[in-house]
Amino acid sequence: MDRSDPMYILQNASRIRYREAERARENRAEIVRALNQEQVTRRELFKWGLFTTVGTLAMVNGLSPFARSAFADIPTGAPRSPLFGAKKFTTELHRCQLQAPIPLRRKVANNGESIAKFPNELGELPGRRKSYHTQFSKNPDNAKFRNPLTGRGPIEGRPPGEIFAHQRWEEYFPEVGYLLSIGQCAGDTYMHESFPYQNSDSFWCYGSGRSAVGSMPPFLIKARYSEPMLTRVYNNMPVDRSQNAGFGRNETQLHFHNAHNGAESDGAANVHHFPGTFYDYRWSTTLARADKINTDASDRRASGPDGNGGLNLVPGDFREIQGSMWAHDHRFFFTAENVYKGNFGAINYYSGPDRGNEEMDDGVNLRLPSGTLLDWGNTDFDVNLVIWDCCYDASGQLFFDIFDTEGMLGDIPAVNGSYAPFFEVLPRKYRFRLLNASMSRFWKIGLADQQGRAVPVHFIANDGNLVVSPLQIPTLGPQGMGERFDIIVDFSQFRKGDRIYLVNQALHRDGRRMKEELSLKQAIRGDDKDPVVGAFMEFRIVNKVESVDVPGVFHRASDPDKSQIPPLLTEQIPIVAPVRTRHVEFKKSGGDSRGADGKCIPDCPEYATFPWTIRINGEDHHSMNANRISMLIPAPGEVEHWTYENGGGGWDHPIHLHFEEGITMGRNGMQLPDTERLARKDVWRLGEGGSVTFQVQFGEFGGSYVNHCHNTVHEDFAMLARIQLLTGVAGSPQTSITPTPNPTPDGVFFTDPEILPEGLPRGWSDEGVRTAQLQTTIASGDDDD
C-alpha cells in the first residue's frame, strides 16, 4: 500500500467501491469468527493463501483494505462508518459515571490480621491481605472459595500465597471500597440517539455492583490521599470465548495507570482473571518517596482532604502528588481489543494542593476551577473528557480490525462515549482533564471560536502531574495514547449563545504515526481522507447550568468565579547524578513471543504476529513473554537515567512506564516542548526516529511491572517488556525475584522466570539474586477466618 493513500475510502467514492470495501471487511470479520470458534487454524489460512508466511493478512482484493481495488488503481480502503443521519453537536456530553465509595469496617481475624468488612447487606466476602485463591488451594472442594459460575477454579483471580498478598496491608489498610462489574453492555447502549443500539457483546464495559450490566460513559472514581481503597472487580463477561462479537478476550486485569501501587494491584503482572471470578485491587494512595522524604508526615502540602475542611497529612514528597489518572484493561495480547470495547474508566486523585474546592483558602489549596458545594472533589467546573476514535460496520455495530498490526484508526470521534457532543458551560473558568484513550491515534487539540480564531488555554498538568507554573499556550501539542493533559479554559470573554470548539489538528493516513500537524485554520475545514480531523466537541455558553455535585442546585452566569490560576503550582524536582543509566530501543523486527511449541506466555491469539520488539542496552531484540525479565531494579531509592529511543522511521511510539513517573530531561529528533521540560510524565511520545531521556527513581513497593508502547496495537503485537522491582521492605517476598503466575480457569500455577542478559543492571552481578520457589509462593500460613 502507498502510505500516502487514506485509511478510509473517500466520501465521493462510487457505490460499487463502497460495496467492495464493505465486502472485504465482512470477509475479514468472518475469518476472525472462524479463528475465535476454532473452526480454522493459522496453518489452514496459510495453506489457503489468506495469510502470508509471516502471518499477516494476504494483500488480495476482497479481503485486505490495502489491496488494489478492482475498480480503481488505489487501495480499497476501509468503508466509512454509517452515521444514520446523525450530525455533530446534536447530542449532549455525558459526564463520567461517578462511583460511590463504600465504607469498610476494620476487623481483626483469628490469625491476627486485619480484614476489611463490607456492609453486611451487600453479602460480600471481606477484603483480605491474601487472595481467596489461597483458601481454594487448601481445600478445592469447599464451594465457598470456588468460581460460582463455572464450578472450576478459585473464586478470586489474584494468585495465592505471599507473593500476591497485598504489600504493606496494615500500613495502607483500605478505608473505602468499590464494587465494579465488567461485562456485556446494557440494551440501550449507543453513542448517539440516531445510532442503533449496540449488541450486548459489542461493548464490554463497567457497571456498579456485583451483577451490574455494563454501560457507557466510563466510570469515574474520586480518590484522595490518606484514604486507601479496595476495588473489587467482578468478571461478568461470557464464559464462551467466541461470544465476543468478533474481537476481545473474556479475561481481564485492570491496570491503574499510573498510581503508586504494589505489583499485585498494578493490573499488569500477568494476573488476568476469568468469568465468574473477582479480583481485589488494594489501591494504596501512597505518595511516592514515603520511605525517604517527609517520613514524619509534617509537610501540609503532602496531604489529602479530610472531608471537614481540614487535611490528613501523609508521608512522601508533595512534588509527586498526582491528579488525572485512569484504569483500563491490560490482558496481555488483547489490550487493544478489550480497551476498545469499553474496558476503561477515569480516576481522579485529590490532595491538599489539588483539593477540588476553588473557594477554600488554607495556605495549601491552589483553588483551581472545580466548584464549592463539596468539601473536596467538586466536578461542576472540573470535567473529565475521555477522547477516542472508533468505527462501525454497515449495521451500526462496533467494529475492530485485528489484522492491522501497525495500528487501527476509527472514523468516529467520541468523547465520554458520545459522538461529537455539545456541552453547556457558564462564562467562567473551567478545568478539563483530557485523556487520549485511542488505540493508535495521536490527537493535537486546539480551541477555536465561531470565527475560527484560536482560544488560548492554560496548561497545568501533564500525565496527572502538576507543572511548576501554568503555561499559557495557543494550542496543545500532540497527545499520545494514554497521555493526559489538564488545561484551564476561561470562557468569561464569551457571551450567552457563543460556540467554542475542540478541534483535532492531527492528520493521520494510517495507524503508524501522525502524518501532519495542521494549522487550526486547516483543521477546522476538515479532511475527507481522515474523518476525525476537525471540530469534534462544541461548548455552548449559557446563563444557567445544574450542578452535578449537588443535583437540584443551579449555577448562574452572575455567580462570582472563585477559582484561581496561581502563578506557582508546585516545586521543581532537581536532576541529580544517576546510579546507572539504561537505554531502551523500540524497534520493528521479528519478535519471539512464541516458544518452540508455538505458544505464548500468556496464551496469545491464533492470528497474532509479533513485528514490534524492544532492545535494551544493546542486547537482542525481544517481544513480550511474561516469563522473561528484561530489567531488574535492584534496590529502591536509586536514581537512574533512562533513554527511550524509536529505533526506526515511518512510525511513532508513545511509551508508558508503569508505577513510577520520570522527570523529562531532554529530547533528540524533536523539540522539547515547554509542557514537558523537567515535567513528570509516565507516557512519552518518541517521534519518528527520536528519543527522550528522563530521570526515574523507584520505591515503596516491589514485584513485576511492565514498560511498553501505548499504541495498544503495537503493545499486543508485542512491544512490551517485564520490569522486576526489588523492594527494601524487610521480610517482603519482593526482596527477591518473584515467580511468574500463569492463570488458568482451574487456578494459577507458577514458573521460574528467566533473567535476560540485559535484565541485570550494568556492573551488577547476579550474586544474591535468587528466584523464589513455588512452595514459597503458595505457602499461606494459618490465616483462615
From TrEMBL:
<dbReference type="InterPro" id="IPR045087">
    <property type="entry name" value="Cu-oxidase_fam"/>
</dbReference>
<feature type="domain" description="Plastocyanin-like">
    <location>
        <begin position="613"/>
        <end position="722"/>
    </location>
</feature>
<dbReference type="Pfam" id="PF07731">
    <property type="entry name" value="Cu-oxidase_2"/>
</dbReference>
<feature type="region of interest" description="Disordered">
    <location>
        <begin position="136"/>
        <end position="159"/>
    </location>
</feature>
<dbReference type="GO" id="GO:0005507">
    <property type="term" value="F:copper ion binding"/>
</dbReference>
<dbReference type="GO" id="GO:0016491">
    <property type="term" value="F:oxidoreductase activity"/>
</dbReference>
<protein>
    <submittedName>
        <fullName>Putative multicopper oxidase</fullName>
    </submittedName>
</protein>
<dbReference type="InterPro" id="IPR011706">
    <property type="entry name" value="Cu-oxidase_C"/>
</dbReference>
<dbReference type="InterPro" id="IPR008972">
    <property type="entry name" value="Cupredoxin"/>
</dbReference>
